[in-house]
Design a protein that fits this description.
Length: 278
Amino acid sequence: MSVGRAPLGPSPSRRRYLMCEPRYFEVRYAINPWMNADVPVDLNRARDQWRTLVRAYRDHGHTVETVAPVEGLPDMVFAANAALVLDGQVLGSSFHAPERRPESEAYGTWFKETGYHVHPAESICEGEGDLVPVGRFVLAGTGFRTHRAAHREVQELFGRPVISLDLVDPRFYHLDTALFFLGGGTGEGNIAYYPAAFSPGSREVLRTLYPRAVIATEEDALAFGLNSVSDGRNVFVAPQAHGLIDQLAGRGYVPVPVDLSEFRKAGGGIKCCTQEIR
Ligand code: ARG
């Protein structure tokens, strides 16, 4: 006699994340449309929100390591931008904004001390902000920050096919503000994205590659809902992204709402604060 079994939902895997405590976080220059140096950051609130995210990751079985924050580098908290790490290889970032360039050294030191060799990017490249590994491929954004030439560097270094996507809306200046990888153990997995953030051709590419993608609304995207982190099952997501949360739950994912509203003042969210070490 066979026993009936409920179908299993998407399965999670344990991840290793690198994060940077927001000790010196503030908005004192404006390099994206979200930033306004006249709107003060509540540092205590930012710290609480950040700690809540760390706790949420650890409670779900993930490892969180931290890099020491550097005074005078307020955006260093956005660890995702510092590198792309795949198969133990590190492509170090070369930041677009002069204000952020010293972060490369601070993160480079952490990687070296942790035993990694860092390949510095020759072209402007903002790490996981614009580079999203999806199964065997890498989706790569360009238009505001990372240059297309860096996409070729990624392909050469990692030997994985890189799919270039053009971002067209300055509010979604990094690929990770408009798209995230949900995971998927078999095949190429699935993504969630906001189509209007992409050029018509790139939209068509995404539609072809991911016919079953979760399509987010502008409201979800403005709430930084696409700046989410998925472990394959649990999705750490902005609580304000209501429509997206409902869709994820409907597909069998487990939304884990974590509010990083204070970081939105700098144009960042959950994924921006999280570098995955693969
Ligand atoms: N203020 C930072 C910048 O404009 C925010 C970076 C957000 N990070 C991200 N992965 N989208 O560079």
